[in-house]
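Give me the fold.
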Amino acid sequence: MVKFRIICVGKTPKGWREEAFEHYRKLIVPFAKLEEISVKEQKIIESAGIENSLRQEGERILKLLSASTHKIALDRKGKHRSSIELCKHFETLYQRFSAFDLIIGGPHGLHCTVLDRADEKMSLSYLTFPHDLAKIVVAEQIYRALSIMNNFPYHK
């Protein structure tokens, strides 16, 4: 069974966002395994700056990554895909990989070391989303792609 890990800087607050993510996790279960991993958001200390905070978050993320997974970093400069294009892309990747890491940064994005380690960079939109909302959108798009692949009546 295919496995997706969403690695996200920061925790999702209790409430509707957590419920929305869980909703999609349950829908994905017949097709794949979906795991959520939260990485501690580094507090920005003025004297150290944003770059130092990003570097520390990046180090935490890099420790979680495996050579055997296909790593997709979410980045505003990444490739834009439609839902159908994402589905076809996953179908192609399934021939070589059974595990995927989708990496979502915090308020200031991802450190360059994480972006460099990623196999590809993907953008969800030209808009900017809070990380916890981006996580929901990623889960929904995974479900949408899986439902298209499996001829399940969800995508319209």
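Residues 2-149 form a domain with the Alpha/beta knot fold (CATH 3.40.1280.10).
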